[in-house]
Design goal:
N-(1-d-carboxylethyl)-l-norvaline Dehydrogenase, domain 2, eight-stranded mixed sheet, four-stranded mixed sheet, 16% strand, EC 1.1.1.169
Length: 307
């Protein structure tokens, strides 16, 4: 299968690497010049649970020409419209587009560029990091849940699932992926912003009773807003899932920490805690913690001169 990875940071490199090693034709798309140069000159280097180096193609999105069978979206949420515009020339009549972005609300953006019959929405709990340009840190395991937003597309989506599973990505076709997307957003809402603000790993943050009070309040706000939009969410089950995830990923710096603290890049806060705060305002659901966290992240972005 011919696959573009649209947004080839840490997670894009993980998926691109595993799909490439499984025998697919994979092209990485990105705009980070040092990253592109490193991979073109030295290949993509893998460290972590295993060490490897692969000569995988990488280019700017607008340089891609050949229509794809599948495009996996891993760009930052605020860059999604620009990415979809930059790759419009490789989106064929039957090109499937799988969105695995963090956060909420991406489906509405994608529908402006892609027919519903070709859109797959998904969520993943795989993790990854970048040691530097062209060097991906791959540790531990993960999984993916995905769904065709057009029920008639389930059979085609199952073929995508098979390809991804051949690459060891542990994918399940989910007949209702929306609760899983909200659950993952809640994971990000309790870990990404908090660890970025506190400059710590997930395990360090979750180690104190004070922090756990914050975590439980954020979970409650996400669940109340999700329910108000019609999504079926189990607060107790989500809490158990988040606590388990915090144990498994205790040594991990989440992606917002990597963006804000390590690399001084703008964050996706508006699509995580910020999205819940805005939706809460629309629906009359109080979300004081999500509002405060969003404002604190924006304030830090201003301090760093990246907003």
């Amino acid at each position: 299968m011919f696959i573009y990875i649209a947004g080839s940071g840490a997670m894009g490199c993980r998926f691109g690497y595993q799909l490439f090693k499984a025998g697919n034709k994979v092209v990485l798309l990105d705009k980070w010049e040092d990253h592109i140069k490193a991979i073109k000159e030295k290949g993509l280097t893998i460290v972590g649970d295993k060490e490897d180096n692969v000569k995988i193609p990488i280019m700017h999105p607008e340089e891609a020409k050949e229509p794809a069978d599948l495009i996996i979206l891993f760009t930052k949420a605020m860059q999604l419209p620009a990415m979809l515009q930059d790759i419009e020339q490789v989106i064929g009549e039957n090109t499937k587009v799988l969105c695995l972005l963090n956060g909420l609300g991406h489906e509405d953006v994608i529908k402006q560029y892609i027919p519903e019959k070709n859109i797959l929405m998904g969520v993943t709990v795989w993790t990854a990091g970048l040691q530097g340009p062209g060097v991906a840190i791959l540790k531990a395991t993960g999984s993916v849940n995905l769904q065709s937003i057009d029920p008639a597309g389930e059979a085609e989506a199952e073929k995508i699932v098979e390809v991804l599973n051949e690459a060891g990505l542990n994918v399940t076709y989910d007949k209702d992926v929306v609760p899983s997307i909200w659950r993952k957003a809640c994971v990000n809402g309790t870990m990404n912003s908090t660890c970025a603000l506190e400059d710590c790993t997930i395990g360090e943050f979750f180690a104190s009773e004070d922090a756990l009070k914050v975590v439980h309040t954020i979970i409650h706000e996400f669940v109340e807003v999700g329910r108000a939009t019609g999504v079926k969410l189990d607060e107790e089950a989500i809490t158990e899932y988040i606590m388990h995830t915090a144990e498994v990923a205790a040594e991990h710096y989440p992606s917002m920490h990597q963006d804000l603290v390590q690399n001084h890049r703008q964050t996706e806060i508006d699509y995580i805690n910020g999205a819940v705060a805005r939706k809460g305002d629309e629906l009359g659901v109080p979300t004081p913690y999500c509002h405060m966290i969003t404002e604190l992240i924006h304030a830090k972005e201003h301090v760093l001169g990246i907003r």
